[in-house]
Amino acid sequence: MSDGDGVGSYGRSAAGLTVALGIGGVLTYVFFILASRSLGEDQYGEIVVLWSVVFILASTLYRPIEQLLARTLAERDHAGAPTGDALRTAGVIQLGVCLATLAVLFAFRSTLQDELFSENPDLYWAMLVSLAGFACAYFARGFLAGKGRFTIYAALLIGEAGFRLVFAVAVAIGVLEGAGPIAVGIALAPFFGLLPIPLMMRRAPAEPATGAIPGGSDLTLGVGGAFAGAVLLMMLSEQVLVSSGALFVRAADGAAAAGFMFNILLVARAPLVLFQAIAASLLPYLTRQRARGDAEGEDAFRESLHRTMWLIVAFAGATTIGVLAIGPQVMQLAFGDNFDYDRIDLAIVAIGMGFYLVAASLNQAALAQGQAHRAASRWVACAALFVVINVAWSGDAFRAVEIGYASCSALLALLIYAIYRRPAPRAADEIAPGSAEELQARLAASDEVG
Questions:
Q1: Is the residue at 85 inside a domain?
Q2: How far is Cα 353 from Cα 268, in angstroms, rounded to an integer?
Q3: Do 260 and 198 fall within a single domain?
Q4: Does 373 share its domain with 268?
Q5: Cβ neighbours of residue 331 under 8 Å, at least 6 residues apart?
Q6: How high is the pLDDT of residue 383?
Q7: pLDDT per residue over 230-265, tens digit each?
Q8: What is the extent of the structural domain holding 372?
Q9: What are the pLDDT digits (tens) for 384-422?
Q10: Structurally, how many domains does the chain consist of?
Q11: Using CA atoms, how far apart are residues 59 and 256, in angstroms rounded to an integer?
């Protein structure tokens, strides 16, 4: 049994993930606050590098299977069709991707261990173990989402974040010492998050699968859907814009500087957790209004979107004023006095955060309008521009990340606004209210920000 009946219930159930994501986000920020205050600058920077590498690789490599399983199992269950082939094929893909990734990383062990992790083998092995764990975790998330088991999905996310936090607390109170235990927490957290699944899954009498498989054929390695590909490109681009800045600074100025850059970017990342609450409800609402096909529905569509964007503008403006007034003091109170924070740096990131959230809101509207492929191309272009700015910049590496993030977020908002104003829908990109496509897009919008 799923938490709801039918595909139409997925939207209502998925909205409950917002609370779990909010709790997980708070636990994650407490984790970084404790790590920053407990470790030296270099040790904290190494933890930030480990975190950034793991979450960029895991999100890029493993979230496709989460999305594919969520969509496929939802469609199969709605049609009363068997799901065994989907699980087997997705498992083969995920296992193959995981083994290939670990093999490549092992082949470059010396370079990664020496250059990326400052000759610390513990961090290198923590990266490998964590990536293996996330291969299992993302498969489980896709299964749970596709089956509508959102309560267990939420427990998985909270358990994972809570387990990491335990190790940071142990270091903070002196039970453990150094970056090693915190790295162990990062490595083992995805495995710990899986524990609620067998404990919470209740066996129900299996109903015979008598329906036809949607599309008329089994799920194969080449079947994933054009819509899924567009959404995944958006997610990859999101990781580049939001998560890669610390790695560019690490390459230029070392591990300690990466930790400093990561803390500055938390000004942008924290509101993304809050935005998940908006994203979880905005897409299905806009989809339903557009599906009405009348003037009243179109007016409600635009009014809701415009109200959301004005709310974001007000929030970003207040945040910018706040960081200009007391930003450095608040950052040192939270993360300790290892670093001196500049008001202008914080303000640039806060402005970029506002543009990014506007772009994310407009992106929900573009998805509701059947514009997934056009929107994905804009995300990819802006992510590529961000990389170019950081590679070509010859001055301060911190300012390159800050300017790159703010300018690319502003450009992204402008480009997606143009799509929203002049939509050209594709049939393959259309989202029906309560459909598997809506579930897939909502999971992408509300997935945890690493």
A1: yes
A2: 5
A3: no
A4: yes
A5: 263, 264, 339, 341, 346
A6: 96
A7: 777 888 898 899 889 999 999 999 999 999 999 999
A8: 225-450
A9: 999 999 999 988 999 999 999 999 999 999 999 999 988
A10: 2
A11: 25
- In a shared domain, residues 23 and 144: yes
| 98 falls within a domain | yes
pLDDT value of residue 340: 86
- Same-domain pairing of 186 and 261: no
Retrieve residue 382's tokens.
């802006």
If you write DSSP's letter for every residue of 17-67 in order, what string do you get? Answer: HHHHHHHHHHHHHHHHHHHHHHS-HHHHHHHHHHHHHHHHHHHHHHHHHHH
Which contacts (CB < 8 Å, 24+ apart) does range 9-14 have?
Answer: 9/148, 9/434, 10/74, 10/148, 10/434, 10/436, 10/438, 10/439, 11/284, 11/433, 11/434, 11/438, 11/439, 11/442, 13/148, 13/150, 14/145, 14/150, 14/280, 14/439, 14/442, 14/443, 14/446
Q: Per mean pLDDT, which of 4-13, 209-218, 406-415 is the most reliable?
A: 406-415
Residues 130 and 200 in one domain: yes
Q: Are residue 202 and residue 232 in the same domain, yes or no? A: no
| 62, 135 Cβ separation under 8 angstroms | yes
